[in-house]
Each structure stands twice: as structure tokens, then as C-alpha cells.
Design brief:
The protein is of the alpha+beta class. The chain is built from four helices and 15 strands. Helix 3 runs antiparallel to helix 4.
């Protein structure tokens, strides 16, 4: 069941989104050669808790950390570890959620560690822009398929592939709510978008095949062919005046 939010609830989600966005910014600043993903996770947790909020991911479904930190060919749900050390040229996807006053804000960004290869940078640029192509279509009266199709068309035109095993989602008082928000689809198909809907749009785009596999830890998801993957995400409100991004730092 899709839960429509009031203007007051959307304002509360904006506060949660602001904290989540700033925590993600702090995480990005920590992406440097020689830093472990566990150290970055500590930065995220300390920032969120200092704001009087809670990390949305910590303990969620048994996840053991405050952020998902996924390096290079890890698509999503990378578990922070003292053994995973970031190197010059890596790309680092960081997914952060914060719960504040009963509502969640959820966002992700793939950071470049120093100078990265041209191939990696092009993937990052395309994935980031595909997120905004999807957001443009989060318009009342459209359907979920319009969002996914916009993402899919943009990246496939550049010879990238869309992960299909994992999708975006509704977000609000719960971290994951209806509806599912795939990054692929057909315009005019799926749930109709209505004012008051709040959704996490999150393209997960691979350099090679769309196929992925989950490692034995039950969380870490990698590309099936070992090639790079990127992940960008915003929490977005559908309003009568158009889409509003709720995970902005200001």
C-alpha cells in the first residue's frame, strides 16, 4: 500500500534528508587512499548521531553498519571493514540513511578516489545524470514506468546496463515502503504517481552485464563479470508543482 504524505510529513522528511545528505558529504570527504571503509562508516555514524538522529541501516535486517560502502565492482550493500582499504583510482559508492523524528532520508553517491580512469569517470557521470533523468519524470500523473524508462534509456544509449535484481522504493516512516521503483520500465506502466508520494530513486548502473551475485555474507553484491558499478540516489517527493528532492544538504 502506497502511503501519501502530508505537507507536514514531507517537511519532516526534508529534515531527515538534510541530515542524511550531510552525513554523505562527510563520508565523501573521508574517501582517500589508505582509509578503510570501516573508518568511513564511523564518520557517518558519528555525524548522524551528533544530530540527534539514528542511522537507518544499522541493524536493519541484520546489517552490521551505518552505511553501505561498495568499492569498484561491488554494486551495493558493501559491509564496511577495517580490511578494505581504499586506493588511488577506486570508485566508492556510499549509501546513507538517517532517521529523524520518525522519518527516513535515504541517499547515495559514488565518489572518485583521486584521479580515476576515463572509463570510471564516464560511468560515474552517466549514472549521476541518469538519476536526474529519472527525477524529471517523478511528476504527478506519470507512472513508475516513466521513471525507470528515463533511467534505462539514458544509460543504455551509452552502452551501460541497469541492475534489475535491486530497485528503488518508497520511503517515509519506514525505510522501505511501497511502491518499488525499478530503474527500467515502460512509460505509462506501473503505479500512478500522486502528490504526497515519497520515493527513493536510485540507479545502480554496471559497466558490463546487468547480472549480479550476492556473496556468502548475504549482503555484498558484486557485478557478475567483475566490471565497475556506480550508484546514485535521492529521496524525492512527488508534489503538484513537480518533483522535490528531499536529500539536499541545505
Amino acid at each position: 500500500m502506497v502511503i501519501l504524505k502530508t505537507s507536514r510529513e514531507i517537511a519532516a522528511m526534508r529534515e531527515a534528508g538534510r541530515i542524511s545528505s550531510r552525513a554523505l558529504q562527510e563520508a565523501g570527504k573521508a574517501v582517500e587512499p589508505g582509509v578503510s571503509t570501516l573508518e568511513i562508516d564511523t564518520v557517518v555514524r558519528r555525524y548522524i548521531e551528533k544530530q540527534g538522529a539514528e542511522p537507518s541501516f544499522l541493524g536493519y535486517g541484520g546489517f552490521p553498519a551505518s552505511a553501505c560502502i561498495s568499492v569498484n565492482n561491488v554494486v551495493i550493500h558493501g559491509i564496511p571493514s577495517a580490511k578494505i582499504i581504499i586506493k588511488q583510482g577506486d570508485i566508492v559508492s556510499i549509501d546513507v540513511g538517517a532517521r529523524f523524528n520518525g522519518y527516513h532520508g535515504d541517499n547515495a553517491y559514488t565518489f572518485a578516489c583521486g584521479d580515476v580512469s576515463r572509463e570510471a569517470q564516464t560511468l560515474l557521470d552517466a549514472t549521476k545524470q541518469s538519476l536526474y533523468e529519472g527525477i524529471k519524470n517523478a511528476v504527478a500523473g506519470n507512472r513508475i514506468g516513466n521513471i525507470g524508462n528515463a533511467v534505462q534509456r539514458y544509460v543504455e544509449a551509452r552502452s551501460y546496463s541497469v541492475v534489475r535484481d535491486f530497485v528503488g522504493h518508497g520511503v517515509g516512516a519506514k525505510l522501505h515502503e511501497d511502491p518499488s521503483v525499478p530503474n527500467y520500465g515502460t512509460p505509462g506502466r506501473g503505479v500512478r504517481l500522486l502528490p504526497g508520494m515519497t520515493i527513493a530513486i536510485e540507479p545502480m548502473i554496471n559497466q558490463g552485464t546487468h547480472r549480479v551475485r550476492v556473496l556468502d555474507d548475504g549482503w555484498t553484491t558484486v557485478t557478475a563479470d567483475g566490471k565497475l558499478s556506480a550508484h546514485f540516489e535521492h529521496t524525492v517527493a512527488v508534489t503538484k508543482d513537480g518533483p522535490v528532492i528531499l536529500t539536499l544538504p541545505d
